[in-house]
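We emphasize that the prediction below concerns an isolated chain of 301 residues; any contacts that depend on oligomerization or on bound cofactors are therefore not represented. The input was used exactly as deposited, without trimming of termini.
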Amino acid sequence: MDLSETRALIAVPIALLAAAGIAAAGSAGGAAIRGIPVFTVCVILAFLVNWVAFIPATIRRTEKFYDITGTITYLLTITAAVVLSPEIDARSLLLLGLVAAWSIRLGTFLFNRIHKAGEDRRFREIKHSWPRFLLAWTLQGLWVTFSLAAALAAITTNLRAPLGPIAYIGLATWLFGFGFEVVADRQKSAFNADPENEGRFIETGLWSWSRHPNYFGEIVLWIGIAVIAAPVLRGWGWLTLISPVFITLLLTRISGINMLEARAHEKWGGQARYEAYKARTPVLVPRPPGNSHTPGDAHLL
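Result of the prediction step, given as a token string:
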């Protein structure tokens, strides 16, 4: 076992400790089943789904079902929260519907993309190392836990309140972010489907407003979820508002943007057109392009 595999095995319990911490905070003042908080049950479920999927994935050394397993995890986890909670109110159903719509749409999109590509470059090496591959599946469970934290806390809490202005502001925020992400993904897919654009980077549509408009939409929609959940959060439950913060840090500092920017620089760095695109286009937060914008190339993920 090499150093990277040893580090992976060490990272697994660390991820579980992080999940246990958010489970403890989210369970405060929440419903329980036979003394076990519903929030905690949902967190356990999120990891179990991924560990079960890991077994055939590592035997076959395939990552093709990683993203669809993530979708299933989101759906099962938030559905379990609603079903196991003693009271189902409008806020719970709203959060369930929004998370389900997002996860099904994104999961289907990613599943189709990986099957067209044939291989996910993120897993090219690690799928041949079971400790590193296990860590990847464990981190997906952690991702689901932190992403859904605010929603799970709002669904499982014993405190109920009717939907009000704050919830509707959250819904509007979610709709804006979801729409932004969907449009960006569709523009990118349409561009990549055109053989004439092979090897080129997209700078048209929303991609002329931001170099990563899909990630911007992703962050915004999770902010919307947190806003909807906020009115019924109390005490330690406020810590579950880490959800959109986690998504933002993940996409801007850990994986997402950093990896894609490095890949794009390796492919197009130094080319006048790409450098001009970078100079006029924000990395994340959109800004309408100026009159000097010249459409043409594209940015591949």
